[in-house]
Structure formats: structure tokens, C-alpha cells
């Protein structure tokens, strides 16, 4: 069996830390494993499979001899270093939004469109966390009944914004409990590191994820709209999104409204979800069973419940979709892409 030499770029981050844990239990036959981050972290040590490993500073030559590079250190780092990794013979699975809409880059959720991996030219993009879990829930419905429209509102966890954002929420929560006035809480990152104003997230809900873009939508909302059409290979599906950050540590929740092409019953959708790869049905109102963010943490599945018909729209269905944003939304989907490629014999 061919050994895989793997580099994790952004190894100290919220996503990178989960990637390391998953790689310890991966089915990939591992050769060398390298952990890369910025100069700030170079020299720090961590444990991998019982051995002590040292974080190295990311430089172009980091990729010499590497055949798989998993990137999650921001779009700018991917723009600069992913081509360097490919030049040196690595396959890159990129977690940032930088390459996602590039027509030469497959955008993959393995349960949905693994076949697209065959067309890769060195870089494969991992979709946005909120898109991924929605695709796992909707693809089986689209395949069986057709999909004409999606309207989604998200309730996104703070871990999706990185380690510093999690720390900021924890401190604001401590400040609230210490009865410190809200105007004295520190808010330097959320809703979005790249924007001018910052607001507290503790005991709040912020309808802004990423910066604002065209037509009053944020970039996060455009990611959900555009990525859905690319993954489902259908530009005619009407998609709209409202993305909201809430004070949950991990686990994104989504209220998803869809319209199907053919009429469908709730029981038919429940049966499809129960059978769908990567999806877990949790839907029994009589027993108060429905997906919850807290219960999703540490799990690889996408949990689906609250499935019900729209009272006024014959082909309208509502669903509640929950998944661990750092796992299926990021680290697990990336590693699953790599494992799937290995099984498909796509590493040279
Ligand atoms: P994070 O907790 O802030 O971690 C950022 C990571 O990037 C750290 O390892 C950091 O290393 C590294 N880094 C920053 N600047 C660097 C540089 N100049 N050179 C090398 N490494 C550098 O962020 P995160 O939540 O893990 O997210 C990281 C990225 O993954 C995001 O920016 C985003 O593009 C992507 N992401 C994708 C999804 C998704 O939906 N698929 C979800 C979350 C994040 P140091 O510790 O040395 O600073
Ligand atoms: C999730 O600094 C950056 O470029 C990263 C911003 C970011 C992204 C992104 O756009 O790549 C933070 C958190 C994502 C994402 O998955 O789209």
C-alpha cells in the first residue's frame, strides 16, 4: 500500500486541531506527517499518535515530498501556497473560499459528488461549512423528487470563526455573569475580523457572517447560494440564505425551506434521510426528538429533523439540519475527500 506524506497547513487553528485528531484515526496509510503554521507557532510541540511533533513555519519548500496537503489557514495563505504545493507534486484539499468557484476546481461533498474528484487538477475545494451539511440533507431529496427552491436561515456556532472568536465569546460570557456593563465587554473580532465594527456575541444574535457584498447579502450567504448550484450542478435551483451567528460554541443549525419538483410526503422524506449516506434522522415530535447543536459535537454525521409540510404550499417542506461545523463542515469533509480519492486511486 502506497504511503501518504501529509502536510496540515493551519495545524494550530480551530479546524487544523480537528484535522490532526481525525488524521490519527484515518484509514490513510501514513508516511511523513508535517504540521505547518505561522512563524508565531513554529517550534511549539504537539502529540500525534503518541509521538511528539514540532510545528514548522510554512514556507514553499515545506511541500517537498508531500503528496497530500490539507489547507485551513485562510484564503490569502491558500492563494499563495496551494499552487506551490501542487508544483511540488501534492494534491491540495483547500478549506478556504479562495478556489471554490474556480471552474477548474472540483467542489466536493463526498456523499453528493465524489465523481467530480476525477476532474481535479491538483486542487480540490472543501465547501463552506453551512453549505456542506445542507447538501448532505438535500441531495437525496433532489435525486428522488427534484429541487426547485431553497430558502435557508442559519444559526451558526462561533467556532466557525476560529480560535480567537471562541475566546472572545467566553470572555464576554464571563463578563455577563460578573454583571459587567455591556459597553465594557471586549469585542474585537466578531461578527467578522475583516470588517470595521465589532459587536458582542454573548447573549446576542448577529445577522452578519463575513463581510457584506452585493444586493445586501453577506459573502457567507453568497457562498451558500453559489456553492449549492455548483455542487448540485444546477443553476436553475432558486437559492436564498440568511446567515446568523449565535452564541453556541460548536454545531451549526439551519432552518431549511425547500420546494420539490414532484409532490412528496413527510414519511417519504423521512425514509430517504434515514437511508442517506452521512445523514441521521432525528425526527419524532411525539417524543420531543429533534437535532440539537450540543448533541452534534464530536460527531461526523448531519442530523435532520422537524420535517414537515408547508401549510400553504403543496410542494413546500421545512427541515432542521444540524452538524458539527468543525467536523463535517470542515476537517472531516476534507479528510473524507482525501480518503475517497485514495480509494478511487486518484493519487499518482
Ligand atoms: P484559526 O483558529 O484562527 O486558525 C488559523 C490557522 O491559520 C492557525 O493555525 C494559524 O497559525 C494559521 N495561520 C495564520 N496565518 C498564517 C500564516 N501567515 N502562515 C501560516 N499559517 C498561518 O482559524 P480556523 O477556524 O482554524 O480557520 C482557518 C481557515 O479555515 C479559515 O480562515 C477559513 O478559510 C477556513 N475555514 C473553513 C471552514 C469551512 O466551512 N470549510 C470553516 C472554518 C474555517 P498560528 O497559530 O501560527 O497563527
Ligand atoms: C470560514 O481569512 C480568510 O480568508 C478566511 C475567511 C473564512 C472563510 C473563507 O472565506 O475561506 C473564515 C471562516 C470561511 C469559509 O469556509 O468560507
Automatic annotation (TrEMBL):
<protein>
    <recommendedName>
        <fullName>Aspartate-semialdehyde dehydrogenase</fullName>
        <ecNumber>1.2.1.11</ecNumber>
    </recommendedName>
</protein>
<dbReference type="InterPro" id="IPR012280">
    <property type="entry name" value="Semialdhyde_DH_dimer_dom"/>
</dbReference>
<feature type="binding site">
    <location>
        <begin position="159"/>
        <end position="160"/>
    </location>
    <ligand>
        <name>NADP(+)</name>
    </ligand>
</feature>
<dbReference type="InterPro" id="IPR000534">
    <property type="entry name" value="Semialdehyde_DH_NAD-bd"/>
</dbReference>
<keyword id="KW-0457">Lysine biosynthesis</keyword>
<keyword id="KW-0028">Amino-acid biosynthesis</keyword>
<dbReference type="GO" id="GO:0004073">
    <property type="term" value="F:aspartate-semialdehyde dehydrogenase activity"/>
</dbReference>
<comment type="function">
    <text>Catalyzes the NADPH-dependent formation of L-aspartate-semialdehyde (L-ASA) by the reductive dephosphorylation of L-aspartyl-4-phosphate.</text>
</comment>
<feature type="binding site">
    <location>
        <begin position="12"/>
        <end position="15"/>
    </location>
    <ligand>
        <name>NADP(+)</name>
    </ligand>
</feature>
<feature type="binding site">
    <location>
        <begin position="40"/>
        <end position="41"/>
    </location>
    <ligand>
        <name>NADP(+)</name>
    </ligand>
</feature>
<keyword id="KW-0560">Oxidoreductase</keyword>
<feature type="active site" description="Acyl-thioester intermediate">
    <location>
        <position position="129"/>
    </location>
</feature>
<dbReference type="InterPro" id="IPR000319">
    <property type="entry name" value="Asp-semialdehyde_DH_CS"/>
</dbReference>
<dbReference type="InterPro" id="IPR036291">
    <property type="entry name" value="NAD(P)-bd_dom_sf"/>
</dbReference>
<comment type="subunit">
    <text>Homodimer.</text>
</comment>
<feature type="binding site">
    <location>
        <position position="156"/>
    </location>
    <ligand>
        <name>substrate</name>
    </ligand>
</feature>
<feature type="active site" description="Proton acceptor">
    <location>
        <position position="252"/>
    </location>
</feature>
<feature type="binding site">
    <location>
        <position position="100"/>
    </location>
    <ligand>
        <name>phosphate</name>
    </ligand>
</feature>
<dbReference type="Pfam" id="PF02774">
    <property type="entry name" value="Semialdhyde_dhC"/>
</dbReference>
<keyword id="KW-0791">Threonine biosynthesis</keyword>
<comment type="pathway">
    <text>Amino-acid biosynthesis; L-threonine biosynthesis; L-threonine from L-aspartate: step 2/5.</text>
</comment>
<feature type="binding site">
    <location>
        <position position="325"/>
    </location>
    <ligand>
        <name>NADP(+)</name>
    </ligand>
</feature>
<keyword id="KW-0220">Diaminopimelate biosynthesis</keyword>
<comment type="similarity">
    <text>Belongs to the aspartate-semialdehyde dehydrogenase family.</text>
</comment>
<keyword id="KW-0521">NADP</keyword>
<comment type="pathway">
    <text>Amino-acid biosynthesis; L-lysine biosynthesis via DAP pathway; (S)-tetrahydrodipicolinate from L-aspartate: step 2/4.</text>
</comment>
<feature type="binding site">
    <location>
        <position position="181"/>
    </location>
    <ligand>
        <name>NADP(+)</name>
    </ligand>
</feature>
<dbReference type="Pfam" id="PF01118">
    <property type="entry name" value="Semialdhyde_dh"/>
</dbReference>
<dbReference type="InterPro" id="IPR005986">
    <property type="entry name" value="Asp_semialdehyde_DH_beta"/>
</dbReference>
<dbReference type="InterPro" id="IPR012080">
    <property type="entry name" value="Asp_semialdehyde_DH"/>
</dbReference>
<keyword id="KW-0486">Methionine biosynthesis</keyword>
<feature type="binding site">
    <location>
        <position position="245"/>
    </location>
    <ligand>
        <name>substrate</name>
    </ligand>
</feature>
<feature type="domain" description="Semialdehyde dehydrogenase NAD-binding">
    <location>
        <begin position="5"/>
        <end position="120"/>
    </location>
</feature>
